[in-house]
Design a protein that fits this description.
The complex is a heterodimer. Chain A is of the alpha+beta class. Helix content of chain A is about 30%, strand content about 30%. Chain A contains 15 helices and 20 strands. In chain A, helix 4 crosses helix 13, helix 7 packs across helix 12 and helix 14 runs parallel beside helix 15. Chain B is of the alpha/beta class. In chain B, the strands form 2 sheets. In chain B, strands 6-4-7-8-3-9-10-11 form an 8-stranded mixed sheet, with helices on both faces. In chain B, helix 5 packs parallel to helix 6. The chains are: A alpha+beta, B alpha/beta. The interface between A and B is large, with 69 and 71 residues.
Chain lengths: ~475, ~250
């Protein structure tokens, strides 16, 4: 077993920072009557603000400070989403509350090219998500957790090294009650090594078995089972923006974070997205909802981002946006793809539908369609618009024009013969087409091929009922 | 004669009717006479082709049809961007074009047409993109040409005749005119240069109804009547109408 621990220091602050590229002074406070600063970003720190300060003092130091209360629920949900995203690296992911995620990676090392490559990949992908994490790897989850919490991004692969590696780590990293840690500190016991050197019976008697058990688990002397995290089938995420925005640029930046997360989530589940709902929450008005459909399942972050950009460009925002929310409305299984021996010859379905989606996002849903034949004698009924790629061939092969005018254009007449910028010369015909009494679209027409003065070949008909008028219905392009 | 041939084979001698042999990846047009005139022996792939027409409906799509039918065997789209009328599915099917490869993109403005055409060309997901953008500025044409190169896609633009005098980066430009069910092609520009005599092609206007592909004149009126009866056994009334026209 080899465990990697991703520890997110100042998670509450990171959740806000990841949503915006702007570098403005930002603090997270504890709320309540006299809110205290819990954490602050570097630009707030540069004005003299520090953790533990009261919020009013901080605002006195920096008047345009953005302050947000801590939201423990949001932190927990964010950890869940990170765990869901991490499911693409290993099937065994566990949440280590309040601010870490554990991954069992031994079985995945071969796929990701070894431990150093995998750690690099993890930290790069986390940066894309907008998180800064300390990543430590150790044979036990407890040791990985202690190393990551100490901020030591280190990989230890052998259990025998653990006592040495953990020896100098401070005891405050342990998940023990405050009282225990304070009492130990008063005794002059500050590091893991010093605690292990104490007689075990005495420690157990004074501080309970829990302290010894935690150390034993970290050293691999006791089993340390972890509850695997099971991500929900639907991805749903809300990302509050540190400052409300009205432009699409910052919205796209924030959405990009969620797209990467969503894509990892989908990859972990082996599924692809077919419909995505983006909810833009405003300060007062009802949220703006943007629906994005994909004609084939996808989890390609670039493709999702491209469609989103096109759609957002068309959306009119009634008010500033203070949070964005993603909802994977519909997903379908999507297997990984084999690489083709001849890349030129094969075009995967996904790329083929990607262009259709892109055009639709900009021009509208109805602007892109395929054409299919229908088994009907009436020319205007013998075709229909369909989803691209879903066409079916014709049953009959009569001579038909490549272009159709719908509705047909009424032609002027002179001496009972049709005119279109001059007299038309009839070539072939008539081909009589009658039918449609069964659905109310009754037609009775005689069709002719005609050519006009410019040499165009036209398909015209004369009605056999009513006014007996001439109509132009097709052009032989 | 043989002495003249000898001189003409000298590499430094170039005749006005010749064009330099260039190797460009191309799609056969399906018309041997036209293939002979085009460098690479067909429509140039990964490049823009400009077809200049006075108006739609003179057989310009039939000129492309054999190449389109061939390209619809690939797993890529054939995109029709902003066509002037509705593409009629049964006719496209009859020309051997696989309808499941065809996409129609409608646009509301010239800018949208150009954007969609460029997207389709650049995506690499379209084997051919046929667009009707109206008159296009040279800069936009240059973008389309580079998109076609990047996406390795055959781009065909239908432009109005008045654009013939304007410079264009498209490596192939052909002016189309029609005369009595035949299409006359005048190559304005091709890779390798050289002037080519106008070419007249029968693009198969009278496909299944070839028998009736004759002008209605007094000379062949008997033949016409026979055809008429064979096709639809129309009643006497409509025959009278036609004779009135003739």
């Amino acid at each position: 077993m080899l465990w990697s621990c991703l520890h997110f220091p100042d998670l509450s602050l990171q959740l806000l920072l990841r949503a915006s590229p702007a570098d403005q002074a930002l603090v997270v406070h504890g709320g309540g009557n006299r809110p205290q600063i819990l954490s602050c970003n570097p630009s707030a720190r540069s004005t003299g603000i520090a953790a533990g300060m009261s919020l009013s003092a901080a605002i006195a130091l920096c008047p345009d400070l953005q302050a947000r209360p801590r939201d423990a629920g949001a932190e927990h949900r964010a950890l869940g989403r990170i765990a869901g995203w991490a499911g693409q690296f290993t099937p065994v992911v566990s949440i280590d509350a309040p601010d870490a995620v554990l991954l069992e990676i031994e079985g995945s090392l071969a796929l990701f090219g070894g431990l150093p490559a995998m750690q690099l990949r993890l930290s790069q992908d986390l940066a894309e998500l907008g998180y800064a994490a300390a990543i430590a790897t150790a044979p036990t989850p407890g040791a990985a957790r202690l190393l990551a919490r100490a901020g030591i991004s280190r990989a230890v692969t052998k259990s025998a090294q653990l006592p040495d590696v953990l020896h100098d780590l401070p005891l405050t990293l342990l998940a023990q009650p405050e009282d225990t840690l304070r009492a130990l500190a008063l005794m002059g016991v500050r590091s893991v090594g010093a605690c292990l050197d104490l007689p075990r019976e005495g420690v157990a008697r004074r501080f309970g078995q829990g302290l010894l058990d935690e150390l034993d688990r970290a050293l691999g002397r006791l089993p340390d089972p972890r509850t695997p995290y099971c991500p929900p089938a639907h991805y749903r995420a809300r990302l509050p923006l540190p400052a409300p925005v009205h432009e699409t640029g910052p919205l796209l930046f924030a959405a990009q974070r969620l797209i990467v997360e969503l894509s990892g989530h989908l990859r972990a589940r082996g599924s692809g997205l077919t419909r995505l709902k983006l909810i833009l929450q405003h300060e007062e008005r009802a949220p703006t909802i943007v629906q994005i459909g994909f004609s084939s399942p996808t989890r390609d972050p670039q493709r999702i981002a491209r469609l989103l950009r096109e759609r957002l460009a068309r959306v009119e925002l009634p008010e500033r946006v203070e949070a964005i929310q993603f909802d994977s409305e519909e997903t379908r299984p999507l297997a990984s793809r084999n690489l083709s021996l001849f890349p030129e010859e094969m075009l995967p379905d996904e790329e083929r539908s990607s262009i259709v989606d892109h055009l639709r996002a900009r021009l509208g849903e109805d602007a892109v369609h395929g054409i299919a034949c229908r088994d009907d004698h009436r020319p205007e009924q013998a075709w229909r618009a369909c989803e691209p790629g879903a066409a079916q061939p014709a049953a009959t092969r009569a001579r038909r024009p490549l272009w159709l005018l719908d509705p047909p254009r009424r032609l002027r007449e002179r001496d009972d013969s049709p005119q279109l910028e001059g007299p038309l010369v009839l070539h072939g015909g008539p081909e009589r087409i009658e039918g449609g009494w069964w659905d109310g679209g009754d037609v009775a027409r005689d069709y002719f091929v005609a050519s006009d003065a410019q040499g165009r070949q036209l398909w015209i008909y004369r009605e056999r009922q009513g006014q007996r008028g001439w109509y132009l219905q097709g052009v032989f392009g | 004669m043989s002495a003249l041939d000898h001189v003409l084979q000298h590499p430094a001698v170039w005749r006005g009717s010749q064009y330099a042999k260039v190797t460009v990846e191309s799609v056969p047009t399906g018309f041997a006479e036209l293939d002979g005139l085009l460098p690479g022996g067909g429509w140039p792939r990964a490049a823009l082709t400009e077809l200049l027409i006075a108006q739609s409906g003179i057989g310009e799509l039939r000129l492309l049809a054999p190449a389109l039918a061939r390209m619809s065997r690939q797993e890529k789209w054939l995109a029709l961007v902003a066509p002037p009328y509705l593409p009629y599915a049964p006719a496209f099917d009859a020309l051997g074009i696989d309808l499941s490869r065809l996409i129609v993109v409608e646009s509301r403005s010239d800018a949208q047409t150009l954007w969609a055409a460029e997207r389709c060309l650049r995506s690499g997901a379209c084997s051919a993109v046929i667009a009707w953008p109206g008159a296009v500025a040279e800069r936009a044409l240059r973008r389309l040409q580079s998109a076609a190169e990047q996406g390795k896609s055959l781009g065909v633009l239908f432009s109005p005749l008045r654009c013939a005098a304007q410079p264009s980066p498209a490596p192939l430009r052909i002016q189309l005119a029609c005369g009595r069910s035949r299409l006359t092609l005048h190559i304005l520009k091709r890779r390798g240069g050289g002037w080519a005599a106008p070419l007249t092609l029968d693009v198969g206007f009278g496909q299944p109804l070839t028998a009736t592909q004759t002008d209605i004149t007094q000379e062949n009126i008997t033949q016409r009547n026979i055809t008429v009866q064979r096709i639809s056994a129309a009643p006497a009334r409509s025959r009278r109408i036609r004779q009135g026209i003739a």
